[in-house]
User: Fold Receptor-like protein 7 from Ziziphus jujuba.
Amino acid sequence: MGCSSSIWFCCVLYFLFHSSISMSFPSPHPDSSLCHPDESSALLHFKNSFSFGTIPGNLYCDNEVQERIRKTWQNGTDCCSWSGVKCDKVTHKVISLDLHCSRLQGIIYSNSSLFFLTHLRSLDLSYNHLNGSQLLAQFGRFTSLEHLNLSNSLFEGQLPQEFSYLSKLLTLDLSFNRLMIETSSLQRIVMNLTNLKELILHETDMYYAKPYSLMNLSSSLTSLELSSSGLQGEFPENIFRLPNLLVLDLSGNKNLTGSFPMSNWSIPLRYLGLSYTSFLIDISHLSRNLKSLNELDLSNCKFIGSYPSLVFNLSKTITSLDLSYNNFSGEIPWLSFDLESLAYLELAGNNLIGQLPETYINHSSGMSFLYDASHHQILGHVPSNLAYLNLFDNLLNGTIPSWLFSLPSLHYLRLENNQFTGSIKEFQYNSLVHLNLRNNKLHGPIPASIFQQVNLEYLQLSSNKLSGVIGLDQFSKLKNVYHLGLSCNDLSLNSNNFINYTLPYDLDVLELSSCNISEFPYALRVSESLSYLDVSCNRIQGNIPKWLWNVGKENLFYLNLSHNLLTDVGKLPWKGLEILDLRSNLIQSRLPIPPPSTDIFFISNNQLTGEIPSSICSLTSLRVLDLSYNNLNGSIPLCIGNFSDLSVMDLRMNMFHGMIPTTFAKGNNTLRTINLNGNRLEGPVPRSLLNCSNLEILDLGNNMINDTFPQWLESLPMLQVLVLRCNKFHGTIDTLSVIRFPFPKLRIMDLSNNQFNGVFPRQYFETFSAMLDGHADKLRYMGQHLYMDAYYQDSVLVTMKGLDMELENIQNIFTTIDFSRNNFEGRIPKSIGNLKGLKGLNFSHNKISGHIPRSLRNLTNLEWLDLSCNKLSGKIPGQLTEMTSLEVLNLSQNQLAGAIPRGNQFGTFDNASYIGNPGLCGFPLSKTCENDRAQQPPPSKGDHLEAANGFDWKFAILLGYGCGLVIGISVGYMLFSDKRLACFIRKVGGERWIELLKARKKKKKKAHFNTRRRNR
Assistant:
């Protein structure tokens, strides 16, 4: 009776459950013979809860899977025959659902019909677009699951502890989602999933998961893949003793530490990836213990001990090796590799030197070997199985050996950024997929075999010395190529002779800079997928043709048309443009406004006229705006100061007038450079600049700004360059600052040609922290660490050694102070001697009195010193001879007296350094000192030549200090040697000045000889 009641009760429950299912989902066609109706309905309901579409950036999937689902998933058909569905042959229950790459778009909710498929043993939803879907606890219902793959589908949220219910799981892949995994969840999964063989969690967030939670992983585990997961701390050593582990990938976890067991290794490991981790690695120890290893990735790692050269003995089973970016030096140790089995070798980003080995043929056997000619050593067989060779970013030289061109399986060859010379030989096989030889010294024509590489997808030959005339039609067989780089060679590209030829539709990148072309390549006309186009430094003239507007219309983000002869660009149609470079053309129109998506906009060195249109305010994403060297006028729009992402505002050398924008908002931490030099701006310096906490360069020179010294700028923590030259600044500079260390990073301060008065700001000289040391651990340029620096280079106009020059690529060791042509009074502070990093110091044309301080002797890095046209008195301190870097000295037009010091650099200075000081005597002046009995050298021919032609510091002053007079020299901090000065003089003065230079050199040489003779 009891049993019958129980059976009856279960039957009622079964009936009610299936009735509810039938009511929830449409009934299948009665002809369905195998698939259970409830599961068929659940599957259809699940499919209909999503839309199908393309997934942005998903190159892995095609449309075939989606089409098969659409065709086979039909109501009234057997669901066991649907694409991606498998059923048990006995029970006809759905046991496998594979929807990877189905391009599903939508969200899986907790009441999804997916969770009614409780008999599933395998579920694959990878490579879909399930954005917003949580990793639900309902997945824990699939207690029969053996395989679960949810990777690359944009799941998010925390890993629920219910996953630990899946005790039958053999493989679990949750990679490339937005998941967070904490210690407790991971620990429960590790403890309960005792059958697990593969645990794959690439790029999940395991920041809060401690490595010790992996301690009890199943001994049956064959694959543990946790790359770029944020895992940090000490990795458990016992995992290296798991008896069945074949794959261990921990790469990309930079704070993950660990070491290897010294004994009892039992794993048959095939793949080990530790790149970009903090493991302490003993490569010799690894080699001795991992006898079965096939693939080893140790790029950017930390090695035990010092490894000046790459020497080791790897297992002979190694087929793939990556030791990139480890600062290894010396030659490539070919004897360490088993060349017969090696298929993949990557040694990029090291300091490897020398030449690649050549081929030695044993004529008796007919076999080929690699031969090291420098050491007269046979290295082994030619690696005929090599498919991938990556040696870029090293110091390798010599020619590319012939054996590299005859490898039958070579797919990837990367030798860029080395010093290879010679020609590119003919490839013997058409196996190449990726070829990059950029930035070497290769010459000669492009070999014909490259145009036969039918599988080639990536071709980069830029920045070499390749020559010859080629036509784009020669690339007609390269139908799969998506990246084509030919820039910066000696090539002449014939792009328009073959009207019917078109470049591939899927072409993504085209680099044709400096290819001697005069028209836009018409072969581009169908390349709608183009995202990057560089045709700079050519002879293209006129306008942008309208047919080009359809090229990359939806995808183009980089367009470089700079250094051509364009006269107009019209309205630019590309909606996704991010980087637009129109520098150095002949554009004569009003300022064209690029699309609102633009990040970086260059249009300097053109002939633009008119005002900046108000539509520029739509460019709210701008980071770099360079409109310099044009004829733009009007006022600067206030909205530019409001751009929240703007890093560089370069508007110099135009005709803007009015006030500097006052709209720099609070919290502006992006603006790094403001250059308004050479305009007609008036009014005060806006105090809202204080809101720009990361400002590094402020150049307001050569305007009409009327203000007192903006002392409040001293609180800007990052300011390195302050140029206020040639304005109407006035008043004293009060240094009674409440800030303990004003201008903490200032390295260039130019207040010249204003109306400042009073004494020098003594406190500044005592606290200029960045000028105290002339040395740097590493030579850097301003902005070098920033993304946009690849496109924008900071520059500033400075007076160096009497000449105005534009300084490009400002080095972190360049420091200078220029207070010349003001009305400063009083004495030179002794504290100036603390600034040992100074390269240049100019206090000329003021009203300074008193003696020259002896503390200047400490400025051992100083290269030019100008104290001329003041009221200095007393002797020239003999201690100044200790300034051994000094190249230019001007003490003229003062009231100095006594003997000129002798020794070191003082033997090279001529009369111009001292004229206008009647009380001075001694070499090089003709006036001898009473107690100086040494024979002075007679005036040289050069003295007369200088006097006759007036080549003295009066000329240098006129040349170097006139407001608005700029010598067109761009230097990346150059020392102005005689050789370089000769080059300059040829440009501005002709051969007459060359004779002056020769006389100057002869005089300096003779003076130096006499100084040495006296000092013996």
The longest helix spans residues 991-1014. Residues 1-32, 933-1016 have pLDDT under 50 and may be disordered. DSSP finds ten helices and 66 strands in the chain.
